[in-house]
Model the fold of this input.
Amino acid sequence: MKEEFETNLATAQTDEKAAIETFNQMKAAKTEEIEAGNQEAGNKATELANANEKCSQAKEDLEDTTAQLAADRTFLADVKDRCGKMDKQWAVRTKVRQEEMTAVGEALQILTDDDARDLMSKTTFLQTSSKSSSARQMASRVLSQAAKKFSNPKLSMLSSMMQNDDVFAKVKESIDLMVAQLKKEQKDEVAKKDYCRDELHKNDMETTGEYDNKADLEAKVKNLSTLKERLTQEIKANNDEISETQVEIQRANENRQKSNKEFQVTVSDQRATQEILAKAMDKLKGFYSKKAAFLQGASANPLVGGAPPGEFQPYKKKGGAGGVMGMIEMIIDESKQVEKEAKTAEQQAQEGYEQFLSDAANSISSLQQEITDKQGQMATSDGDFIRAKEDLATSLSTLEDLNNKNKELHSECDFLVENFATRQEARTQEIEALAQAKQIMSQ
Done:
């Protein structure tokens, strides 16, 4: 039985040693994985800090751009106010121009008066020349006064031309040039109005679309920032859980080693107890068996001679001897039971320990996989966040360009568009008046 116990003890010690070596190997591998995970987590934390810094800078840029946009809108309101004042000035200028055109028409009426033509056709050359000269002087004087009143160099030039003999031919030529110039200006103004209308509409559409795009990008940046914060918190929670599990593994390892030492001590003590008690039992059994045989032999071969003296009573075990041996056997049985229970408890503890290590390893592996997946999501969201910030910066730059373009278009086109009908009508009347004057002069 002792040999069997020793064999079982050696087997248990061998199994325990193998289990310890396996645990140490697994512990070393998991420690390396933890160190690699911690290093990667540190790298991701650095990347996250950089991303947060860029996010903060982008928010400052957004605030600056928003402030610039407000200033641009204030400037636009000021421009519109000044344009309104210019419109009033234009109305005054238009009225003066109309008066100027009226004066030119009166001058042409003087030149094309029916009495003047009849007089020139009925009189002699000298009389015609004299009347014509008088009419030219009168027309020249009227044009000169109109030129001074309206500060028009063209009328002044016509007034000078009226002093020449060949006045009608030159006036007609000047009228043709003026009509051509007015028609060209009228055509160019129509084209300019169409250009302004199309460009302003295009600018408004692009600005509206870009503001929508800007709002979408701002929402995307905010959502990505929230996603990054959530992933960061979840990764931290997973790392904390891994650390806690590793602490529990270390604590379980220490408890297992302590429990195994207690088991070894218990088994050793019980086996030593059993061995000592077995030796005591053997001594007692040997003693009582030898004494019994000796006394039986002495009774069968009495001494020769006289009557023997009084004899001892047959040797018997004391009444308590059987109780002592029985107690020893009971203690041995109890020791064996204790050893058996210790082995059962040790086996159950080892199985529970191994199951805990397996569950902990699976939990850590699952958490590390979650961390890897979330780090992948983090990397993707970082890339999307950077691209969204770049797109937002581009959108803000585009909006600034569109606003600048809008200012240029309004500065270039507002006066023309708002006064287009008045300018076109005035120019048309001027062309008609010049054409009528030329027709009268040609008769």
